[in-house]
UniProtKB/TrEMBL annotation:
Domain of life where this protein originates: Bacteria
The protein's name: HTH LytTR-type domain-containing protein
Domain HTH LytTR-type: residue ranges: 130-234
Any Pfam family the entry gives: PAS_4
Coiled coil (residue ranges): none
An MF annotation (GO) of this entry: DNA binding
Species name: Syntrophotalea acetylenivorans
Alphabetical list of InterPro entries matching this protein: LytR-like, LytTR_DNA-bd_dom, PAS, PAS-like_dom_sf, PAS_4
Amino acid sequence: MDHHNLPNLLERMDPGIVLFDNDFRVHHVNQALMQIFTETSRKEIFDQSLLQMHQGPPAERMQELVGLMRDSSRQVSFSIKRMSGGPRDLFLLLKLMPLLDRTLDNSLHCCLVYDITTLIANPQRRFIKVPVTAGGEIQLLDPEEILFIKAENVYSQVAIEEGEFFCDLSLGVLEAGLNQERFFRIHRSYLVNLDRVEKVIREGNTVTLLMAGNACRLPVSRNRAKDFLVRVGLK
């Protein structure tokens, strides 16, 4: 793939830094972090744990990442998260690493926070690039080259002609941020690029798709079949 390598782009960025303990209490932050979270007060950052700030699935994912880091005693590879609810959506790239004291005890953890919002989304909150993991690195794909996207629990798999790649963002987040004139939800687990549909197969009440450059047959759910056929001019 000839795409932007995100870690290379990050070398020119000043990351936010958070130091927190095993109870997820924040000890130190840098000024860059405060500039990323301009709507969050100093009191909110230091008077509650990170798990209290990010409840539900985000908190569970944070515990999972920290547990993985502690078990392996090494840094955790990049993870991309979307934060919404304020006046703006943020797309953040996070990197966790253990910190050791003089006894080599891992009692503090460091999280590097990169605000990559402007690299992947425009001011209208539409994706201009889609981040995927390829060969242990994060690459930025052009939406036009995506064939389809498949849900994988709270994550997704993005298919292009070269293969399928893991994406930290959910199918719902990707659907909301991609051009809805081009991308269509054919099934609860699939979002397809209408420009890359090669063949529509109708067998009785069943509709499946073949995408250009891919041998997979994708199912169109019955409750989406009529709308899909209208969109592609077959009804």
